[in-house]
Specification:
This protein is an alpha/beta fold. The protein folds into two domains: about 5-200, 2-enoyl-CoA Hydratase, Chain A, domain 1 (Alpha-Beta Complex); about 205-250, Lyase 2-enoyl-coa Hydratase, Chain  A, domain 2 (Orthogonal Bundle), CATH 1.10.12. It is about 50% helix and about 15% strand. The strands form two sheets. The chain has a six-stranded mixed β-sheet with strand order 1-2-3-5-7-10, with helices on both faces. Helix 1 (about 30-45) runs parallel beside helix 3 (about 75-95). The longest helix has 21 residues, at about 75-95.
């Protein structure tokens, strides 16, 4: 239904979540935030879904918080909103044990930029841009942006981008390592789908465990990371998909992974 704030479509193991407030450039109001969090959690529990795509309807990806909904809020209420609405959403995206691709079809500003950088992959159209616009309204970057951005582009570059708040054009985002690829607008959907299909054909359990290892590696030292890898490898090695992968390699055929 076009009146719904979020569209969810599942096709061939790929769930596409489309922010659907094009007239508001997909600004995040209360209904959209609730719907998006619920959808991320639901696709995470759905074994038929192997990959998730997050994108926006119309000419924007997401311009962040709908300021018409929150004008005049004081600091205390903003902090509560982050803790109760935005932070659970970012954590749900990171804890999703399936690859999630941000298809950035236009501007990603404020918390919309935070949503994009929380995903595992970012593919952008050539006319997309990233705008850390918090300083323009006297606020600080939130929704994980101060955590993700230094890890993507380095601390010095992150400081420059967040303190100036200057827009980052798609080609510059690619050069900085903020996005994985930049393609023509007409090619964005097919390129995203090609990547999603490739990931959907991989071993789901192995991808989930790899995401766990990557998340853990950001917070621990080498010795603990090595121990955690060994533990996860023990889990992966006991799966039917591992047996299938080895058999396919020996028989020189494509593997048929089932997630078991």
């Amino acid at each position: 239904m076009t009146g719904e704030p979020l569209l969810v479509e599942v096709d061939g193991g790929v769930a596409t979540l489309t922010l659907n407030r094009p007239d508001a450039l997909n600004a995040l109001d209360a209904a959209l935030k609730v719907a998006l969090l619920d959808a991320v959690r639901r696709v995470g529990r759905d074994n038929a879904v192997r990959v998730v795509v997050l994108t926006g309807a119309g000419r924007a990806f997401c311009v962040g918080q709908d300021l018409r909904e929150s004008s005049g809020d004081d600091g205390a209420s903003l902090a509560v909103e982050l803790r109760e609405q935005y932070n659970p959403l970012i954590l749900a995206i990171r804890r999703l044990e399936k690859p999630i691709i941000a298809a950035v079809n236009g501007v990603a500003a404020g918390a919309g930029m935070s949503l994009a950088v929380a995903c595992d992959f970012r593919l952008a159209s050539e006319d997309a841009s990233f705008v850390p616009a918090f300083g323009r309204i006297g606020l600080v970057p939130d929704s994980g942006l101060t955590w993700f951005l230094p890890r993507l582009v380095g601390p010095a570059r992150a400081a420059e981008l967040l303190l100036t708040g200057d827009p980052i054009a798609a080609p510059d985002a690619r050069r900085l390592g903020l996005v994985n690829a930049v393609v023509a607008a007409v090619d964005l959907a097919p390129e995203v789908r090609a990547l999603a299909d490739r990931l959907a054909a991989a071993a789901p359990r192995a991808l989930a465990l790899t995401k766990r290892a990557l998340n853990r590696s950001l917070e621990v030292g080498l010795e603990e990371a090595l121990a955690y890898e060994a533990s996860l490898q023990g889990i992966a090695g006991a799966t039917a998909d591992h047996v299938e992968g080895v058999a396919a390699f020996r028989e020189k055929r494509p593997p048929r992974f089932t997630g078991e």
